[in-house]
Specification:
Helix content is 46%, strand content 8%. Bound molecules: iron/sulfur cluster (2 copies).
Length: 350
């Protein structure tokens, strides 16, 4: 029950509170717009499917610390993913409660849930990437992750669905992704899963969800069919141990492959901490370079590209790449650094 009478709540109140609670970025999307533009109209991921009362979705972003992408092993990034997701859910939960206490029913989307009545694979009630884009926080990369100008794709997002109408931000018009001429995510991908503003989800899952649900069911099927010796061998296999670790710490069941996140040059964090380590992409092959060039040429020739068609261009950035968003963020970052240095110097002088 709300502890206070219904009080007027503005978009800037909500954003300020989200940042105070620990969100790294925040934006607001209109439920009406989200209902009108589902990512795939055949399987509508819309707020009205969850509750027709929802009027706005507050989207928060949590940055994945870059340290994980500087390691030689993948375990640190998998573990940090868990920490970031737990923190994000806490921030979102507290924000939802804060809004409800002010008389505006609000709840957090189940960001990591899959609904098999829709598509197979990871397909939840809402697409958090699309929520983020509709809330003006970034736009799609070539590998269809959301890229924020601040942190590139090294982010997680969630949404707080609320019954209060808040002023929405609307999607960015600019394409944040550098585009086909960059193609670094494509070069780095061990599963050859990156398409032309598209992704081959099963091919990605082989690496990103090494011990995910499909691996587990395949292992159980294999176990059921195996003879006694085969069963004994499987009981001591690395696969079974991976399954155990997945249950215990969720490690390996998703977010197992950091490559396209690590090499993406968008974001202040990349330039500050990753550029040296990630400059060279060992997985790059002449075939991958040729594919990137083919993508570039197809776009130049205005060929039919599903990821860039009239429906999907909304989330890629209809105005194309100008680099302006990145420049603005870098300038803001430099200004803030300068301000902090000056503040420290004047504190020293006192
Ligand atoms: S997570 Fe890994 S496998 Fe999936 S698209 Fe990115 S680089 Fe490729
Ligand atoms: S690596 Fe390059 S092409 Fe891929 S998403 Fe990032 S900016 Fe876009």
């Amino acid at each position: 029950m709300p502890r206070e009478a219904k009080s007027a709540l503005t978009a800037s109140d909500v954003k300020a509170k989200a940042l105070e609670l620990g969100a790294d970025l925040v934006g607001i999307a209109s439920a009406k717009v989200l209902n009108a533009f589902p990512p795939d109209p055949r399987y509508p991921q819309t707020p009205e499917r969850i509750s027709p009362r929802v009027k706005s979705v507050v989207v928060i972003v949590q940055h994945i610390p870059v340290a994980a992408f500087r390691c030689k092993q993948m375990v640190p990034v998998q573990y940090l993913d868990m920490i970031v997701l737990r923190r994000m859910d806490k921030v979102a939960g507290r924000l939802a409660m804060w809004m409800e206490e002010r008389g505006h029913p609000s709840f957090v989307t189940a960001a990591q849930e899959t609904d098999w009545n829709m598509k197979r694979a990871s397909y939840g009630y809402l697409s958090t990437r699309h929520l983020g884009i509709e809330a003006g926080l970034g736009s799609f990369g070539l590998e269809v992750n959301i890229l924020t100008p601040e942190f590139g794709p090294r982010v997680y997002l969630t949404g707080i669905l609320t019954e209060v109408e808040l002023e929405a931000d609307g999607p960015m018009q600019e394409q944040v992704c550098i585009g086909e001429g960059c193609s670094r995510c494509l070069y780095s991908c061990p599963g050859d899963a990156v398409g032309h503003f598209d992704i081959d989800k099963p091919a990605c899952a082989e690496f990103a969800q090494e011990f995910g649900y499909m691996t587990v069911t395949a292992m159980l099927q294999k176990f059921a069919k195996a003879d006694k010796a085969g069963k004994m061998q499987m009981l001591t296999s690395r696969d079974l141990f991976g399954f155990w670790q997945g249950i215990l710490r969720v490690v390996g069941s998703f977010g197992d492959c950091p490559r396209c996140l690590a090499v993406c040059p968008v974001g202040v964090d990349y330039h500050a901490f990753l550029a040296d380590d990630q400059k060279h992409i060992p997985e790059k092959t002449p075939e991958k370079v040729a594919l990137g060039q083919k993508f570039k040429q197809s776009r130049k020739n205005n060929e039919e590209i599903p990821g860039l068609n009239d429906w999907n261009i909304r989330w890629v950035g209809p105005a194309g790449y100008t680099g302006q968003a990145a420049k603005t963020v870098r300038q803001n970052f430099r200004d803030e650094q300068k301000r902090l240095i000056q503040a420290a110097e004047s504190a020293d002088g006192e």
